[in-house]
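lol ok so funny story. i was supposed to be doing the assay writeup but got distracted and ended up predicting the structure for this chain instead. priorities right. anyway since i did it might as well share w the group, maybe its usefull for someone
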Amino acid sequence: MTTPSRYWREIPQRYRLEANKCKNCEITFFPPRLICPQCKNRELEPIKLAETGKILTYTVIRVPPHQFVDQAPYAVGIIELDDGVKITAQVVDCDFEDLKIGQRVRIEFRKIFQEGESGILCYGYKFVPE
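and the output, tada:
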């Protein structure tokens, strides 16, 4: 279950696609981190990720977790953004037969799910073909 406080903390990365980059070793992290796990540096600068990329791999989910039952079947892919960062997300607005490795996609922000009958609406990113 997503708590309202956790959801609000994650808004910058969800809505603005914010990551951070280590000023020492220049590795980019998404979601953002407080300490670089590579060199232990604490000097990280915020950056905005690319909004386009390509599908590295994907699968079609036919038996989903309970939050996504109304969306099944749906495709989930690992997308490599043009800046090299990899993100896992749903791929929407296309037929599963038309999906292919290397296909160009762009990010869109949409409703992901609703937490319970009167719970918060959770928004995030999904990918659509370019």
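The CA atoms of residues 112 and 123 lie 5 Å apart. The chain has two domains: 1-49, 50-130.
back to the writeup now i swear
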